[in-house]
């Protein structure tokens, strides 16, 4: 049976067991048809709607 030769740290074990993924920000389309990042001001109209 395979047995590890050295002990793994708690941090290393937690990194292996995690299911968190990096979420990339998705651009949204405004009413005027331009794309912008969420929670940012529209550069063409100056409007801010989250």
From TrEMBL:
Entry keyword annotation includes Ribonucleoprotein: yes
A GO biological process held by the record: translation
GO molecular function: structural constituent of ribosome
Signal peptide: none
Statement: the UniProt record of this protein carries the keyword Ribosomal protein: yes
Bias kind Basic residues: ranges: 1-20
Annotated SUPFAM superfamilies: Zn-binding ribosomal proteins
UniProt-annotated stretches for the region Disordered: 1-50
Source organism superkingdom: Bacteria
GO cellular component, one term: large ribosomal subunit
InterPro entries per the UniProt record, alphabetical: Ribosomal_bL32, Ribosomal_bL32_bact, Ribosomal_zn-bd
Keywords from the UniProt entry: Ribonucleoprotein, Ribosomal protein
Pfam families tied to this protein: Ribosomal_L32p
Family classification: Belongs to the bacterial ribosomal protein bL32 family.
Listed NCBIfam families: rpmF_bact
Protein name: Large ribosomal subunit protein bL32
Organism: Nitratifractor salsuginis
Gene behind this protein: rpmF
